[in-house]
Write a structure and sequence with these properties.
The structure is a single chain. With about 325 residues, this protein is α/β, with parallel strands linked by helices. The protein has 14 helices and 8 strands. It has one domain: Rossmann fold (3-Layer(aba) Sandwich). The protein is about 40% helix and about 15% strand. The radius of gyration is 18 Å and the shape is globular.
Length: about 325
């Protein structure tokens, strides 16, 4: 689910999930691992500025907000995460503005900005009548979750960062090399050729190549890439990405006083590597860092049993 960011791309940080393999590949693949989850959830919405903000809910108890990455990814790929969390709490899987059915009347800097996303999160918290809640963020969604924690620390119960983009720009720059390191020489050559042009076809082919680097199980990665062929909203990524991961960004000063429990959970083989996860964990007073072996950027697909156990242990410690 992550679109690799060469250094010239890092400011836009388009962590685009499994974007666009050939449509014909879908018919050749076995049923999606996501199929079993789609009918479990109730669809709800709240009114925002000229549009409805949709979310999917499952479970009971304290609400837990779940943020997908991109920025600009549809949230479907996190259905297994939300389903697991719903065993212990009220899982709230948000279709962030500009994704899914949450479509503002126009898409520009006035509607797609960090401030409007944080306002959405707060509006949803108030709607749910929650004094505090736990927030889960994956990839670029982890940046949004950390920004929210910095802006509204008194509204947070716990924070869970899943293979998050790192807490500061200086740790992000290794990401592109880590992706390349996971590609074959043939794939690298093809990538270099594709990057000389900019078209929907070349971007789709680039995304297909990059998806191979995001999973420990490459076959599973290819299958999910085909399933989620239109998962990333490029217009959202290009508007929000440069703001939340601008060159030199550093969230650590704003998080120094954050004193709630934090779980940083990472696939050990993720191109968003353990060093990035360690530096993010070190930014918090009360953080636990866990690495899942033989897992990439989506450990709930690569190693679901270990992922579920780590989530359960954090949400319901013994």
């Amino acid at each position: 689910m992550l679109k690799r960011c060469r250094l010239r791309w890092i400011p836009s940080f388009s962590l685009a999930v499994f974007v666009v393999l050939l449509g014909t590949a879908r018919a050749q693949n076995p049923p999606s691992p996501l199929a079993a989850y789609k009918n479990q959830f109730k669809t709800e919405k709240i009114s925002r500025d000229g549009f409805d903000l949709y979310y999917r809910s499952l479970g009971t108890g304290e609400p837990i907000l779940i943020l997908s990455g991109g920025p600009g990814d549809d949230c479907d790929y996190m259905l297994p995460v939300a389903s697991e969390i719903a065993k212990y709490a009220h899982a709230i899987l948000l279709e962030q503005r500009g994704t899914g059915r949450s479509l503002p009347p126009r898409i520009d800097k006035s509607t797609i900005a960090l401030s409007t996303y944080l306002e959405d999160f707060e509006a949803l918290r108030v709607h749910l009548n929650a004094q505090r809640w736990t927030v889960v963020g994956h990839s670029a969604g982890g940046i949004l979750a950390m920004d929210y924690a910095a802006a509204f620390p008194d509204r947070m119960d716990k924070l869970i960062l899943l293979d998050t983009a790192p807490v500061a720009f200086q740790y992000l720059t290794a990401f592109e090399d880590n992706v390349l390191d996971r590609l074959s020489p043939e794939d690298r050559d093809r990538l270099a050729t594709l990057e000389k042009t900019d078209s929907p076809q070349s971007r789709a082919a680039i995304a297909a190549l990059e998806s191979k680097a995001l999973f420990f199980d490459r076959k599973l990665g290819e299958q999910l890439a085909a399933e989620l062929s239109s998962a990333w909203h490029a217009d959202i990524g290009h508007l929000l990405g440069p703001e939340i991961t601008a060159p030199g960004y550093d969230l650590r000063p704003r998080l120094q006083t954050f004193d709630r429990p934090v779980l940083v959970l990472n696939g050990r083989q993720d191109p968003m590597d353990p060093w990035m996860a360690e530096e993010t964990s070190a930014a918090f007073k009360h953080a636990t860092l866990l690495l899942i072996d033989r897992a990439g950027h989506f450990p709930w697909f690569d190693q679901p049993k270990e992922f579920d156990k780590d989530i359960a242990d954090f949400l319901q410690p013994k």
